[in-house]
Input
Amino acid sequence: MSRAGLVRGFDRARSSVDSGTGRGWPGGTEVAQHVLLVEDEPNIAEAIRFILTRDGWRVTHVADGLAALARVAETRPDLIILDHMLPGLSGLEVLAALRADPATAATKVLMLTARGQERDREAASLAGADGFMAKPFSNAEILAEVRAMVAR
Amino acid sequence: MRRLKRPMFLARAPYRRRRLRDAARLLPVFGAALLILPLLWADEGAERRLSSSDVIYFFALWCLLIVVAALFAPGLRSGEAAGDETD
Amino acid sequence: MPFHILVAACLAYVIVLFLVAFLAERRARRGRLGFLQSPLIYTLSLSIYCTAWTFYGAVGYAARSGLEFLTIYFGPTLVFIGWWWLLRKLVRIGRQYRVTSIADLISARFGKSNLLGVIVTVMVVIATTPYIALQLQSVVLSFGVFASETPDGVLPPDAEQTAVWVAVGLALFTILFGTRNLDANEQHHGIVTAIAVEAVVKLVALLAVGAFVVWGVAGGIGETIAKIDAANLSAWQMEPGRWTGLIFLSAAAVICLPRMFQVMVVENANEGHLARASWAFPLYLMLMSLFIVPIAVIGLERLPVGSNPDMFVLTLPLAEGQGGLAMLAFLGGFSSATSMVIVEAIALATMVSNHLVMPLWLRFSRAGARGDDLRGVVLMARRVGIVGVLGLGYAYYHFSGGSAALAAIGLIAFLGVAQVLPVLIGGIFWRGATRVGAVAGLLTGFVIWGYTSFLPSFGPGAVLSTSVFSEGAFGLAWLRPHALFGTVGLDPMIHALFWSMALNATAFFLGSVLTFPGPVERLQGAAFVNVFEGQIGPRRWAHGQAEPEELLVMSQRILGEDAALALFQAAAKAQGKAGFLPDTTPEFLGALEARLSGSVGAATAHAMLSQLVGRATVTVEELMAVASESAQIMEYSAQLESKQEELTRTAGALREANDKLMQLSIQKDAFLSQISHELRTPMTSIRAFSEILTEGGLDPETVVKYGGIIHDEAKRLTRLLDDLLDLSVLENGTVQLNLTLTNLHEMIDKALIAARQTRPERSFEIDRDPVAENVYLLTDADRLTQVFINLIANARKYCCSDHPQLRIAVRLRGGRVIVDFVDNGLGIPKDAQALIFEKFARLTDGNRAGGAGLGLAICREIMANLGGTISYLPGQGGAAFRVTVPIRLEKQAA
Output
C-alpha cells in the first residue's frame, strides 16, 4: 500500500473525527464513526480494538455471529469487521444474513480470515463483502482499509 | 416338495378326471372283494359243493370288471394326455 | 392222423412265424411301425402269460382242483384293471430310464448296483428254468398224444429227441429275431408280432375246442351246465387260504415274471397302450378260461378213467374223431409253449448278458471300452445267454425225467419270481428303500422259497433228505420245510408263500430303515419314486437316437459355445447337411467323445455317450471314475469362482482405496487450511501487539499486558508445532516407545496433577477406584499418561456443569485394561461423536484454551501405537471416553 494512500486515509479519518462536520448522522449529532468488531480470538480483538480506538473510531466487540447480528440491529455500525471463522454462525453466514436484511444490506463489511487462500477471498466477495484482509496483517494496513471503506 | 403350484379349485373337466382316477384306483379293490366274497357263502356244517352258479358268478363278475375298466380307460388316458399329473 | 402230417404242419407253422417276424422286422427297420406299435399287438403280446401250462394244464387243474385254476387269471385281471396304481408307474419308469429287464430296474433303482442285478438275475434264472422245462415237456407230451394215436406208426417219437429238436429250434428262432440288433431300447418288433400271431392262434384253438365241446359234444349251454353240476368236479371246495393266496401270487407273478416285464415294460412303445390293455388283457384271459370247465367236465365224462386231464384239449377232439380240430389245438399248445420260451429266453439272456457277462468281460478285457467291439460282445453274450437258458431248461427236463413233478412247477416258479415284488414295489414307491435292504429282502425271500418250496418240489429224498422233511434241518423241528416255525397244517404252497413274502418284506424293510443310502442310490430313488413329477436327476440320452440338439447343448456347456458350434457344423457339413445338427452316427459320436474327453476326462465323456449304445457299457468302475472326475471339475470351477470372488474383492478394495484417497485429498486441503488458520491466528496477535509496542507511547501496565499476550501466543504457536510434529511421528509409526512396568494408579495420579493447569480455577470432584486402579501395565507410561492428561483436561475445559465431576472407572477384561473417563457435562452431540478424533475437529465452544484441536487425534494415534483403542461412549450422562490398553504390550519387531 502506497504511502500517499495511507496518509490520505489518515487525514480523512482524522478530519471526520476532528471537524465533526464531514458526515452527518441521523439526528444530526456529531459522533465518532462506529465499528462493530466480530472476532472470537480475544487477543486479536484486543489488538484491533486498540488500533482503531487510538485512531478515533468507536469500537464494539462481540465474539460470535449471533451476538453480531443482534448488535447490528441495535447500533447500526458504519463498518463491520467480520472474522471468517467464528463459533456458531460462520463469518460468511453472518454476512449473508446481513445482506438479506434491507436495513443492513448496505452496511460496509470487512472480512478477516486466517486461512488466507484465494478461495476464501472469492467466497467473501461473492457473499457481498466490501473488503477482505488476510491474517496476519500490519496495523497500518487494517487502519488504512477501514478508513478507505468508510470514506467510499 | 415340488407340489407348490396346486390350484385350490379345479375346473370341471380336471375335477372329473381326478374323481375318475379315484374310481380307477378303487376298482381292483372292489374286484378283489367280490372275488373273495364266495368264500363267505359256505353253508353252516354242510360241505359246500361247486355248482354251475359259481362258475356263472365268477364269469359275470369278470365281465363286469372288464366292462368297467374299458369305460374308465379312455377317460384316464385323456387325463394323462392333458398333463395334470399331480394326483 | 399221420404223424408226418403233424410234423409237416408244425414246420409250416414255424415257417409262417419266421415270415411274420421277418416281415415285421423289415417294416420296423424301414420305420413303418404302424400297426406294429398298436395297442392290439401290445395286448396280444401280453398273452404270453398264458403258457402251455395254462393251455393244457388249466383243464387238468380244473379237473383236479375245480375252480382254483381261475385264481391264476384273477390276479392279473386285478393288476390290469388297477393299472393306474402300479403298472402305469412301472411302464413310465421303464420308458424314461430305458430299463432293459426287471433286474436292470432293481439294479438301477438302488444306485445302479450290479450286485443286485446279479442277485435278481440268478434268482429269476433259477426260478424260471424249470418253467421252460415245463414248456418243453408239454410239447413233447402233445407230440406223444399224436404218436400214440398214429395207426401207421411211421415215426415212433422219441421224447428226448423231440425235446432236443424243439429246444434247438426255439433257440434258433430266438437268436435270429431276438439278437438282431442292440439298439432301439431293446424292442424286438419281429418277435412281438410273431407272438401276437401265436396269441391269436392259441385263443382261436382253445375257443374252437371249447365251442366244439359245448355245442358239439355236450349239446348246448344248458346241457353243459347240467353236466357241470353233476360232475364229480364239484366235490372240490374253495379253500380260503389257497384261493386268496393264489390270487395274490398270480398278481405278483404277472408283474415280476421276466417275460411279462419284457413285453409289458421293455417292449412298450406307448404308455397309452396300457390303458387299452387294462381291459383287453383281462378280456383275453377271460376268453381263454371260458371253456376250461366244460372241457374238463366233458373230458372226465367221456374219456377213459386214467387219461391225463392235462391233455384233454387234445385228446377230446381226437376221441371225437375231429383230427383237424385236434391239429388246431396242437398248434395252439405249440404256440403257447414257443411264445413263452422265446420271450423268456430273451428276457433272461438280456439279464445274463447285462449283469453277468458284460461286467465280467469289461473287467477282464482291456479293449472293452471301444464302442463297436462292445456291440459285438453284447450280442454274442445275448446269443450265448439264449442258448444257455434253453440248455438249462432242457437239462432240467432231462434230469427231472419229465415227471409229474413238473406239473407243480408253475406255481413254484411264480412264487420264486414273486420274491422280487417287495423290492420292486418298495423301490418305486418308497424313497427310503436302500440297497442293503433290497439285498437282504431278496436273499431272505430266495432262501426261504428255495427251502420251503423249490427244493421240496423234487420230492422227499431227492434234494432234501426225508429226515429234513420230518425232523427239520439239523434236526431242528422248527426248520421243517413245510412247517417253518411250527406252522403245521398249512397248505405247503400257502405256507411257503406266507413265510417267504413275510420274511422277505421284513428283511427288506429293516435293512432299508437301518442303513443309509449312498448318493447315487438316493438320486435314483428320488428319480424313480417321483417319476411323474418331471425329470429329476441327470437326464438320460435317448437310446441310440440321441437328439443332436441335446448333444449340442451338453457340448456347449463343456466346450464353450463357439467351439461346440464349429464342431457340430463341421460334422454336419461332412455328412452333407446344412446347419448345426449332424446325424448322430457312430463316427460323429466317436469324434465328439474324443473331443469331450479332452475337456471333461475320458470316463465322463465315455459314460455320457456310451448310454447311447446300451446301459451294459457303463460299469460301476466307470461311474466311480465319473464321480471323482466330476468332483475334480467341481473343485476346479470352485477355484475359478473363488478367483472371481477375489477379483471382485480386489476391485472393491481398490474402489474403496480410491474413495479414501479422494477423501484424504479433500481432508488434506482442509488440514492445510486448518493449519494455516491455527498458525496465522497467534501470529496475527503477535504481529499486531509487537507493532503497537514498537510504536511506543503506552503506559507501563499496557506494555506488560501486551508483552504477556505476545508471550502466550508464541507459546501457543510452539505447542501447536509440537503437536503437529508429535502427530506426524505417531501417524508414521516411527515413534519410539519406552516400555516400562508402571502402576496405572500412579499414571492417573500424574495425569490429574498435570491436567490441573487447564482452567485451574475450576474445582473438579474426582471419583476414582484405587483398588481397581492398582494394576501394573507394561506399556509406555509417558504416552499413556499423555492420553489421560488430554482426556482429563478436555473434561476440565468442556464440562459445563456447575458442580463438575469426573469419574474414572477401571476394569480388567481378557488381558486388557479398560479405563473410562466420564464427566457430568452435556456430552458430545451425536453427529459430532464420529468427528472428535479427527484432526482440528474442535467443537464449538465458548472457552477454548488455546488447543489446536489436535488433542484427541493425538490420543487416538498414541493408543494405536500402544496396541489399544480410545473411543467415545455414548449415553453415559456426560462426555465419556473409554481407553482400552493391553496389560502387557509385546514389543513389535519394528
In short: Chain A has a mean pLDDT of 76.
